[in-house]
Amino acid sequence: MRVVLTGVGVVTPGVAGGRGELAAALRGHAPRGGSRVAADALASLIAGDEARRLSRVCQLAVAAGRLALADAGRAGADGLGMILGTEFGDLASTLTFVDGYLRRGPQGLSALLFPNTVMNAMAATATIAVGARELSLTLNAPTVAGDLAVARAASLIRAGRLEAALAGGVDELDPLVDEVLGAMGAGDELRGEGAAFVVLEAEDAARARGARVLGELAGAASRALPARVGGVGRRATSRAIGAALEQAGLGTGDIGHVFTSASDDGQRNRWEEALLEAALAPHRPPRTSLATRVGRHAGAGPLAVAAAALGAAASGPALVHAVARGGTHVAMIVRRP
Amino acid sequence: MTSVVVSGLGVMSPFGAGVKAYWNGLVAGACAIRPVTLIATEGFRCRIAAEVPERIAGSPRRSRADRLALAAAREALADAGLGREERAEAALIVGAVGGGMLEAEGWYWSRFAGERPKHTRELRSTLPLSHAAVLGSALGLGGPRETLVTACSSGAASLAIAADLIAAREAPVALAGGVDALTRICFMGFNALRLLDPEPCRPFDRDRRGMSIGEGAAFVVLEDGARARARGARVYAELCGYGMTTDAFHVTSPHPAGEGMVRAMRAALERGRLAPGAVGYANAHGTATPQNDRIEARALREVFGEGRLLVSSTKSMIGHTMAAAGALEAVATVQALGHEVIPPTANHTTPDPEVAFDCVPRVAREAAVEFAISNSFGFGGQNVTLLFGRAER
Amino acid sequence: MEPKEVLDELKTILATRLKFDPRRASETTMETPLPKGVEGSIGLDSLDFIELSIAIEERFGIVIDESEDLTEHFACFDALCRYIVSRVASA
Questions:
Q1: Which ipTM value was assigned to this complex?
Q2: Which residue ranges form the domains of chain B, and what is each CATH number?
Q3: A127/B164 CB distance under 8 A
């Protein structure tokens, strides 16, 4: 079963919309990481009554999910699943929940905030908002959570487990969270925020409803390389890239462009570059990294998948690659339909 | 079509270390729910939980949850007899919710009190993703690696996704399970939601008043059936199918008619190509909240009809172990098939007229069952049903 | 304590703990129903009711017994204010 990409939904600083808005943003100068989605931009996407019960990171996810389905032109949510990646989840609500107790005791605990202390809060509120009733998964990982979510969704569709999926990633920047993360010893890698979804569908179903197919997700694989917890490894043999290429029926020479997960973590960047060199040699297709522009967040991977689909007609098949400290790495092949 | 079998089990439970201690506790109908010792509980209505009782092996620099996970995972891998090369291709799927939050809370609490906590536990051991990082690195697991968070059904979701990986030949073998240590956030949150019973929970009892919290870890080795048999592995059971659905109804309340639960159970049966009548036992989600048990019983009745099916809740003995629950209960279900003994529902004294099933009250039951399901439901309406079949049928 | 004073406190709770827009909270009257789905109601669901109960317990120093059927007391603000006044008096 072929898996096609039929919709894009993005809410990042300066960008809110579908394929058109993303294409325009990619041509222009998307804001650097470190900035937040403007309050009025978010307020225009999530109305007051709904906003009352949704934390900010849930609002980002709900808004981007809706934009993606609208871009895909899918009227109903029949057969739709949700696979969402996140690194930090709703830590802002978690800290607010805890502070309520520390300041006021058991009666300062908010029942409304408690569900948000679990990382599936964004997927849960988004499935309710769009009415997606098939499986819903939240994947937690450093750096590659959004990539893993898209790859998992593609595998579920390919195996006939799902007809369609909203697959993406979300993370937010929050001053309170930043302060605590800093005190806990978080690195100074540039982080960003936003939510990005792609709509993936079984090709038959997409064609049957006359969907505007943006691209094909022809291969997806993930593996773990040997590495210390939180460290980069020495080995530079990516079995994920080979597996994804094999699934797509392509060779290394067919790749016209590579989207990497490079950010301002130099050690990790060098590891990823070594992995790509070893896997693609002697070919050296041009590289793009969105994370260096938008900052590291779980939406960056899905953004790269969408960008790869938008550019595939010009560049040929693209490899979307990401590797996290600790060794989890993901490879996806995106090509024109 | 690929069959997916269970070829290794590992458990850290409120009955202690190991699958044996766990199964013996369940068959005895013992209740491990006691006054909480790990965190302060002054001012809370409920002050009990099921804690893992003994010292947990492993470096004290690791979080309690990571140590629970590591101990259970090691037991499962050793039980399956997986060597270094097999582990290098093995997938690792971990269901998690609390991560290393117990230790992070300790740090945050002292910081709030104006102290300068010197031991800053690293951020990466706080998030749920920590367990997969620690297990993957320590055990040399080189296949796909994912941390799944589907709230209280996370442990069951990990087995379901691992089974998919094997069926799709993304990996020949997988270590899958769930883990959670007790955390203040979980304990405070369920207290705030008024979902906890001040006394040990009584699933499916007419007078039930809420759940009890527990902690633990369980991992299983899932493997391509042909491959397991070829290498002479002990096969505990077959994972014949699963169903995963979402209510898309409410963040904390299940759909009042159990619509998503019914779809999950039916999907599992459909994947396993089984009629409802073939299933003899349901290891229920059975949290003992008035709402869950009523709706789950209703959903079970809609799928399986009244009577016949034996239904019991492991949570009556070890509490609700959060992300570990689905995996611990999968182990209980697999053991029930193999040992031909159905673990009971402890603390169950007065039947509820709304629960149209034999809930195996207080005493384990000898029964040879060929197929059994394990239900897990979570906040956000995340429903998972796993369907297991006896190894020799 | 008068029901009118209780209503003012509840308006504050609606805005602070239940995150209602302050203007919407201030428009609440004794006749406004609470439960979601009722015509003209402020639209509270099961989770909102728990949050409201915790806030009432904290503000008025009473204990709300959730095993009791509270539907009637939480139907509209008039009923809720009278319930709180009587509970405070008997506390």
A1: 0.97
A2: 4-390 (3.40.47.10)
A3: no
